[in-house]
Amino acid sequence: MKRVEHYAAASVGVALLVLGLKAGAWWLTGSVALFADALESVVNVAAAVVALAAIRVSAKPPDAEHPYGHAKAEYFSAVLEGVLICVAALLILNEAWDAWLAPRALEAATSGLAVSAIATGINAAWSAALFRRGRASRSPALVADARHLLSDVVTSVGVLVGVALVALTGILWIDPLLAALTAVNILYSGWQLMRESFGGLMDEAAPAEELGRIRSLVAAHAEGAIEAHDLRTRRSGRFTFVEFHLVVPGDMAVTQAHDICDRIEGALKAHLDAAVITIHVEPEGKAKHRGVLVL
């Protein structure tokens, strides 16, 4: 978890650096499209700070008031980041409209484009690093930050191409049009991020592929039991909660049933990096003859 926190802290520094570069590119050129790009970087800074705070909260151990831990704090962070992205998009649309009504000629386009290209390259490299660490650590906050940065990279490339066209052709309305298209893309990105985060807050089940793997592991490591039924899962940050009923022969000793549970838990925890497993043992009279049959 400390490594995740270090990445989140580094994101704040990277976001500030990129913001400075993009603000410089806008100042050099006066381009409203580059202004839109810089404004999104303001959101990047705010989002990185929020993500860092959420990761620190989610790392706290369970306590009396939060017996299941604080992992969902990262989902709140991702929702807030989505809201900030949408707000930035609306501000960009407003600026694009003003520029459409009164187009402005660009200044020092070559220097501004060079600075913006450097900032975009930094964002692209850091987005890739965040994706790797976020997915490996099952951190919604880091993945959200990475996705946001990737969206920023895509729009930045489009802006760079468009501003270059404005400089070459002198067609000024391309600049506000690009800013508006950037805003629409950012708005969609923010909505997607919020939708996925709401799923985590609503205790969505594990993906179908992972659920199938869980069923296979239970079946393969429950030798001595009869069946497992009422299997349920939910995701909370990097944690996967798994619970089910395990049916064993009525005359089986408690220690034997406990050994089977330990075996299943060990297999599941080896597969799921952070798992919380609850198994309710039942006698064979409770069998439902459906669910997971033991191999």
Note the topology.
Layout: H1 2-29, H2 32-58, H3 73-101, H4 109-137, H5 140-169, H6 174-201, H7 208-221, E1 227-236, E2 239-248, H8 254-271, E3 275-283, E4 292-293
Helix pairs in contact: 1-2, 1-4, 2-3, 2-5, 2-6, 3-5, 3-6, 4-5, 5-6, 7-8
Question: Overview of this structure, please?
Answer:
The chain crosses the membrane at residues 7-28, 34-55, 75-93, 113-132, 153-174. Residues 207-284 form the Cation efflux protein cytoplasmic domain. There is one protein chain. It is built from 8 helices and 4 strands; from the N terminus they run αααααααββαββ. Helix 1 runs antiparallel to helix 2, helix 1 packs antiparallel against helix 4 (109-137) and helix 3 packs antiparallel against helix 6. The chain has a 4-stranded mixed β-sheet, covered by helices on one side. The chain has helices at residues 2-29, 32-58, 73-101, 109-137, 140-169, 174-201, 208-221, 254-271; strands at residues 227-236, 239-248, 275-283, 292-293. The chain has 2 domains: 2-201, Cation efflux protein transmembrane domain (Alpha-lytic protease prodomain-like), CATH 1.20.1510.10; 208-293, 2-Layer Sandwich (Alpha-Beta Plaits), CATH 3.30.70. The model has no long low-confidence stretch (mean pLDDT 80).
Strand content: 5-15%
The total number of structural domains is 2
**Radius of gyration using CA atoms only:** 25 Å
How helical, in percent, are the residues?
A: 55-70%
Secondary-structure element order, as H and E? HHHHHHHEEHEE
Q: Point out poorly predicted stretches.
A: none
CATH topology of the largest domain: Alpha-lytic protease prodomain-like
Shape: elongated
For the secondary structure, the number of strands is: 4
The number of helical elements comes to 8
The CATH class of the largest domain turns out to be Mainly Alpha
